[in-house]
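WARN retry 2 of 3 for item q-0093 after timeout on previous attempt; input resubmitted unchanged.
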Amino acid sequence: MNASASQETLQQQVFADEAQADEDKLDLLEYWRSIAKRKWPILGFAFSVAVVATVIVFVMTPIYRSTVTVLIEAGKNKVVSIEDVYSGASQNREYFQTQVEILKSREVALKAIAKLKLWERPEYDPRNKEAGPIQGLLEAIGFAAELTPPTWTEASLSAAIYPKFASQVDIEPVRLSQLVKISFDSEDKALAARAANTLAQVYIENDLETRFEMTNKASTWLQERLSSLRQNLAASERALQEYRDRTGIVAAEQAAQSGAGLQIAGATQRLIDARVRRAEMESAYNQIKNADKNADLSALPAVLRNPLVAEAKRQESEAESKLSELSQRYGREHPKIVQAEAELRAARDNVQRRVDTVVASVTREYEVARDTERTLEGMVYQARGLVQNINRKEFELNALEREVEANRQMYDMFMKRSKETSVAGDLQSAVARVVDPAVVSNSPVKPKKQLIILMAAMLGLLGGALTSLLIDRLDNTLKTTEDVEAKLKHPLLTTLPILAKKDAEHTSHIFIDEPDSVYSEAIRTARTGVLLSALDAPSRVLVISSSLPGEGKTTFAINLALAHAHTKKTLLLDADMRRPTVAKRLNLAPGSKGLSNFVSGAADLKECVQMVAGTNLAVLGAGTVPPNPLELLLSQKFKDALARLQQVFDIIVIDSPPVELVSDAMVLAAQASGVIYVTKAAETPYQVVRKGLTRIQRADGKILGVVLNQFDFEQAEKYYGEHSGYGKYDYKSAYGSAYSSAYSSDKTPA
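OK item q-0093 returned
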């Protein structure tokens, strides 16, 4: 069972992934249908836009353009090797881009305006715009005399003309070159050529003037700095000479050759040797000192390394070997044994004497090495103090010498720059030159009438098409049967057609009143899907729910129960105890006992169940409305009551409240065999429906399918490509009167 469940889960996941992939694809067919649905409004909108564009372009004033091409020089001619102190120019792209921005600057434009004297032309003269409606009103009421007219100068006139002038200038660098195209647009073709040439000429002249002024400023500043640098150099040289005379130092390099330097070098080396000797003796001394009182000192490495001790240990070892060898031949009282023992004692005494001698020698050598180290340390400190005293004097001397050298280098550098700047100021090369001057153009550059009209028509078509697509994109409802599986990721159980007004009055009995209608056939399709969902199940509990009220779940529940009642023992249970409507829809006795009474035990099943006239359908109404219906559905008594009902009925159809309003449907879904979710076509957003389905699944409910209610088949087939065939199939003509008589009986096959 676990393997089967896992396989089913895997299949559902694959189905969901495929559906998501299909949803993400660019559905060109859907886009085409959306555009074709609104083709005449789109064409009308495009035609209107084209007409408006035509009128506009034919009343526009033609604009002429003239262009001058300027070559910006990458470098400048130099008489001497000197960095240009006034421009910072370099042979790189940054320099070229900088010159282009200078060409676009306000300063160059204002000078060009002044040179052209554009204020003399009526279309540029700002003084013609002074008499406006406000001034006319003030003159009418007598306040015009108090207003002081502005005083116009060339600078103020140029500043007032600048915004319009700048909008007519177009400066475009030529890619991968040092060329710049300067264009000017104007209604006057002659002015366009003259303005472009003037702008290029002003740019070149402005650069020459700027560099000449900066050269003069740089030369003046260098002369001022040279005077102070000369004084600083003289003062530092005097301070150096005075210090040498006061300390008696001739050269700083002689300190390294002094006797103190040699003395400290020799003493330092001897101190290092003494510290090494002291460390060796201290190690041997610590070994002896840290040994136990009864320990064999001859085994210590510091003692054993002594040749005398090593020789005595060898003699002791030979005496022990000789005694051991004689002990194997003679008895303990034998003269040779006695002699060998005496020799062994003598050897051991010799070892002990040698060890004592070595221990005393190590102690004396350690003390001598320590005293020698201390003496050498004193000598090094004394020599180091003498050298440090000399170094202090040399440090001050070096500082004074560095200051003199720095002042001298600074003075020499400024002197060189001053002379080079003076020479360079005599030669001024132009930053750019005109390669191709502007000429008068005879054909206007704009407006391009045919192109504008064509583009307007195309934009009208595009705007209309995009608007149509946007309208459909913003429509987030379920418009086709394919949307159910693509957007909800759940199978479509059936599709209920939209009913005419005459049929809407008896929708609860339409399966009985019109058994051969399209609506009744859709109900039979849902019934078949339910029966095929679990063929071997002895009984089925079906929960009918929706996202919001008014989606037709109660009508569907009643008709589905009527359809099942033809072949199965069916119970219709009204679990919407907040707004019960099943009993009223079926014209049952009002105020009758129902579900709440049966669950609480206040009434038995026979008292609560009512039969629908002319059918085999049993109905269990809501009964007395409890204070909290959710607690009733969550109780164990409700579960027991539902179990008893399953023993009596084959099919139990439960009409539950909407999912988005209360949680009753989730509680019922967990106890049911399956859930049928009803949604209204072209009205309920699919995000709301998908949220409701997700909530039911999280409550362990099993979704049997989705019912798409109030679906307009004619519109769907015309605009969305639906090919269901509903509405075109005449069941009466296909099956004759036998069709109606068969479905009017109680033995209609499932």
